[in-house]
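Input for the complex:
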Amino acid sequence: MWSIGGKQLKGRLMIGSALYPSPEIMTEAIQSSKSDIVTVSLRRQSPHDKAGQKFWELIQSLSINILPNTAGCKTVKEAIAIAHMARELFKTNWIKLEVIGDDYTLQPNTLLLVEAARELNRQGFEVFPYTTEDLVVADYLVEAGCKTLMPWGSPIGSGKGLLNTFLLKTLRSRFPSVNLILDAGIGTPSHATQALELGFDGVLINTAIAKAHDPIKMAHAFYHAVEAGRLGYEAGLMASRDLATPSTPTLGTPFWHQEK
Amino acid sequence: MKIIVNGKTYECASSITLEKLVEELNYQKMHVAVARNQEFVPHTQYSEMVIHEGDDIEFVAPMVGG
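Predicted:
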């Protein structure tokens, strides 16, 4: 068990609810992932469209923790309004804070992110900021009251994996008591394993599962990948080296002659 | 008077409350939250909140997200 946002959780895989071929497949994939947290959003609702209501009933039936996001927000004001609306609708003070600064890379606007995070923490939210791997920004977010950071591995939906493992490792070593969740860019189960091996506390996956040929099976693959990565981290990875060292004993090697 | 509802112009009676607007638009039985001019309006304030000409109202509901 580990703790995040004031809750004790078992699994370290968080899953998104978007982009699935159907609501049924989404439901089965979430169950197959054994995730304890699912992310959701808020979108404009027409009074004639019941999609929002149906989705809400579906998510509630899963009985897992809901992490609403502020996806699409570009200003502090928008993000704060969405956070408040999410708190009323989902009855949670958790908010995955996204303030986007660039439409092509969906890179967070970290200046505004820090400002919004400070204000939302002050207002009693448990803020999960979607950020970059920037060490100094992370420091500001922690100083603003964030107990969890969600750095990207690579741009959202790109599937490129962990592009800057050096800085991601640095975040781990410099913030040992902050929950680090790798968010965005993971494309394969092995990327998730890599994040957990680096000591990240968890990963959030959406596109890599939802866009797989078989999202339900892929969700299960990610469950095992995350478990493997965490076990590996806890077991302690061997130090890497540049030259080979034989694992089989050299003493007593057959056909070996000293004069050669 | 003219206001904006979810990005579109909407014609309604002047001095209408948010509560009345919710009824008029058939949102009353739906799980929605509201923002007025990009500021959240708690459900408890709908009956007191008077809408003004040009106000920008957003009705949002739970949706899929990553």
